[in-house]
Give the backbone structure.
Amino acid sequence: MAANMYRVGDCVYFETSPKSPYQIRRIEELNKTASGNVEAKVMCFYRRRDLPNPLIQLADKHQMAQSEDSPVAMKLKKICLKTPVGEEQAAQAVLDPALAAMEEESSDLPGTDGLAPKQRHQAKHRELFLSRHVETLPATHIRGKCTVTLLNETESLLSYLNKDDAFFYCLVFDPSQKTLLADKGEIRVGSRYQTEVTNLLKEGEEDPRIGSELETLVWTPEHGLTDRQIDQFLVVSRSVGTFARALDCSSSVKQPSLHMSAAAASRDITLFHAMDTLHKSGYSIESALSSLVPASGPVLCRDEMEEWSASEANLFEEALDKYGKDFADIRQDFLPWKTLKNLVEYYYMWKTTDRYVQQKRVKAVEAESKLKQVYIPNYNKPNAALISSASGGIKPGAVLNGGTNGTAALPPAQLCLSCQVTTSNQWYAWGPEHLQYRLCGSCWQYWKKYGGLKVKTANAFGESEAESTKVRPDGDETALSASHRPHRCTVLNCAKEFKLRAHLARHVATAHGSGEGARPVMKTRAAFYLRASPFTRLARRLARALRRPRHYARSPFSPINLQQVKHECSIAMAGVGVGAADMRASGGIARARGAVGTVANRLAAARGQPSPLARAHEWLLLTPRDRMPKPAHVAFPKPPKAPDGSLMYERVASRAELEARRTEPAPVQPLKRRAFDDINGLDSHVNHSVGTGAGAIREAVAAPPPAKRPNKHPAPMQRPSREQYAAMCARAQATGQPLPAHVFAHVNGKPTNITGRGGRRHVISWMDAPDDLYFRATDTAKVARRTLSCGELRRGARAPWRAMRSGAGAAAAAAAAGAVLATAGAGAGAGAPTGAGKTAGAGAPLQLVILD
Amino acid sequence: MAMQPHSKKRVCYYYDSDIGNYYYGQGHPMKPHRIRMTHNLLLNYGLYRKMEIYRPHKATADEMTKFHSDDYIRFLRSIRPDNMSEYNKQMQRFNVGEDCPVFDGLYEFCQLSAGGSVAAAVKLNKQASEICINWGGGLHHAKKSEASGFCYVNDIVLGILELLKYHQRVLYIDIDVHHGDGVEEAFYTTDRVMTVSFHKYGEYFPGTGDLRDIGAGKGKYYAVNIPLRDGMDDESYESIFVPIISKVMETFQPSAVVLQCGADSLTGDRLGCFNLTVRGHGRCVELVKRFGLPFLLVGGGGYTIRNVSRCWTYETSVALGVEIANELPYNDYFEYFGPDFKLHISPSNMSNQNTPEYLEKIKNRLFENLRMLPHAPGVQVQAIPEDAVNDESEDEDKVDKDERLPQSEKDKRITGEGELSDSEDEGEGGRRDNRSYRTPQPRKRPRLDKDAPALKDELKAEDSKDDVKNMSVEEPKKDTVPNP
């Protein structure tokens, strides 16, 4: 079982043609295609026989150089390794005659490396050449496993010969450039590479470095505290954090339950801060406690996870979808008010959330086509080269009962070419057909696996001949066809094929948007538009060739005979005056018909009425503006004009002013009301992004309309001075009201939580906040809206969650469905503060688009 | 082999809370965030409170140019993602761009990583600590004036240079799955630093680290490379790590050790191809710690970040000599460790291509190389007085008394190592004598012969022939090797 399980990374035999030896490949990827087949992306190993001749000689030299460390050999090695040899001449250049002579000598010697000639011969079958060439083959062509390892000079080749299916490689073959290189980096020697080694300090000499300049102590285990005491302090600091969140208004919105506050207060940032505090207060629990709870109120530590608002989180996810993890781009286009560090920190925390887990699941489904292993059963079909009774010259009985039926009578050609046996269970035809060579079963297996015959045949038509006549082209052909195999898109249900890898990459990037590191479609696809010049437009009208505009619009790629167009145009334009042509080219200038009054007068004159202008029919004359009838009621009167003629609009309070107004004690307002304002009023500041803003609340607070992106230029937080601050604290204590949140921001100056922003925003954790909704009005909805009375519309806008009475049957006119849905939800419709109508839906079910 | 029992040590740990927020770029496997994950685990495991925690300074350009070239550091300091286009030529020259991208805060990141290792080395020099840890360091591919393999500034070299002020010989061990080429190259020609790297070799970044790369010039035999194949598991790793390191300790006799703990040799690493568990990886730390030398632990590779933080957390606990529970404590990044939320990981069922025979052969070859070192004990006797600065030396002596075994004891143990195989090798001694007889070596000390039994009989005839050749070639060189 395990033997037939093929994993990514395994080296395997592939059968690409029944007669040639297996190809040796390493599985890089296993992909399931749309049709359910498994394709293996494999890296090629080449055999000696697959290499061009000059390169084989090079390889021999290299091997020899490896086995002998003589200076000549070393020199040779260097040449071999450094000269990418493309052509035969180049190879010859390397082959120094002296070296060649040496080579002869060494190869003639019966195994300087302790190998018999036969073993030497076989060892050559075990040598492979790694390549960086990758191809795709159907996994069903796998015929078994093998191992390929880099030859280490401590190993003898015998260790490979003694093991089945074991290969080694030393060199890397580049099939496109036909070069052979050693896969080896080098350690360079020279003053440009080595360091100057520091001398030992002399006696009495001291290192001038001062420890305190090199490092800052943050914690030491040398303290009087027990583990238990530290644990207790950590618990206390967490509970202080919980309490601080209870006091903090924005936190209490984000974390409606105590458990959530406690969980937020247990994040590591609180613990790190607690440890720092302990260290700074000299490991005295008492003083550490008091610095946890300064006069200004309990310390609050928040990390990026807590810091971010729901809409920021949504933006971030949207941006991740669009740009991937290119945080610089995300920051620039989506979250410019965050620093890069904020983004990175948030990203790694975001990965712990269930949102990420969901995304991962989606990805996992996509990745399902990528397999880790595949089961390929043993291949049992007879090989085409198997000599059956019909094709072989031997009677089946003779083969099967080998020897009993006069095997001695077999002509020499019927012996096994390799091992000369006469009996075998199976015979395989081998070599060029006219020679009628055959191999016994075991030699055939050897040939398939190792690409050679066990013994170097002395026969003139021996191995080399056979190989060069028949097998070599065969092998080349398969290699070639493999390399020209189209690259297939691996995405499910696509499987398009491309000639070049680059095309495939582009296809993946554009069509599936998931190429490695590829930018999504939006960015890579260049937009173009055709700007029609007046002459183009003219040509369109004039030239007969272009008479089928619709056809050309539909197939913009079909060529147009430009010559013909030009010709026709020039003929046509010769006939028409240039002015007229211009006229027509520009599509006709609006006709100057003159004012209505003059036309009327002219008409009157034409009728032969000689009366002067003033006395012409009054109804024909335009009423002067000041005599126009005034409406009974002006909904939006124009503001008064300033002396310079500009309109004077009422000044809208700035954000800082508003905040200042809010921080002032409002004795008029009842206590409860204040708290409400405090929370919701804050929300209205961020409702351009948060999506909780309800129009009604905005009215109540009289906040300005949301600036487009106020966060981009964070207004300097209005921070109270020390004195003001003390006064505020006192006041807050007296009235029992919590301090406004921005005061905490001021208080909380811990080192670990610098967000880089001007001040703390009052945000709602995206986990707790309702999802953003926006309402898209369809035509039917708009029609239905018109059937509603003004009062109903307003009511609907103020209370969007309330179901609408189907407006006196009027809605029914537009909506066959009848029921008017208005379920925009409590926090709906932040996007369009158009007051009315957005909650009125009718006809087709409301299109609620949840921005998730 | 001065093995010490698993003991409690004074441990200093360097960390800057900013380090986790540097981001190499989309799709880049190197994630400094793993250092922050480790840090949070340490806090919640309660290991934080058992160490001295330091925030390192930012290494200055001056400090970095102790190793790196001025123009390279100047380049690093000035390049930013928004002015990259002006530096096209230099980026090519310094190999910055692809593997080593320009990212926001690149220089600061290098400063923090280097600052930690340098501060840690100074700390060890001052003997204010026995073990220093800088998980933000370990960027072992960086070259003198070239970035490489996600590394820009070689904090290890800078740290070792600092250690060399007080230590005659420093040992560098690298258990990253990649070859520690930057460190090896920096000290390729010196005999004061021995670099030992265990790594995957063959069709693998950075392509160096062949068994035959042994150093050059004075540094010949002071670079030790252990090329390994896919699928190394705990057992085989230990089977090669223990003998090699013991032998190195015995022959080189360093007075300080730097261990690069690249966690990409763990099973399931995004880039690695070994099959080590956290335990097997941590075992190396434990073994090195037992030698009781001033010990600098740095990070390194590691691209499956949940396992990296597991590993370095465990190794911190090993350094502290504290047992920690297999159940991971809750922390900000708890969800990363699902679905089991355990500290330890199990190996995969990938096959181990390193056969015992292969490892044995490698080991033997390396032992042969190590035998070429000038004999260490003699060196040490001379080295001690030179090694120290008046009052420091007193301190060191004290430490020696506490931590190290007397020389005589060491010698006994060394003999013991030989004993492991002596019964069969007794006869082989003759062979050894033969060899030494054939190539007369006046400088050979009796100790060398004591090593003899360690030589396994697997040594092939041709190997020993090589040996002979090497030795004779080496003969004049050996004379030039100064015995400090």
Notes: DSSP finds 18 helices and eight strands in chain B. The radius of gyration of chain B is 22 Å.
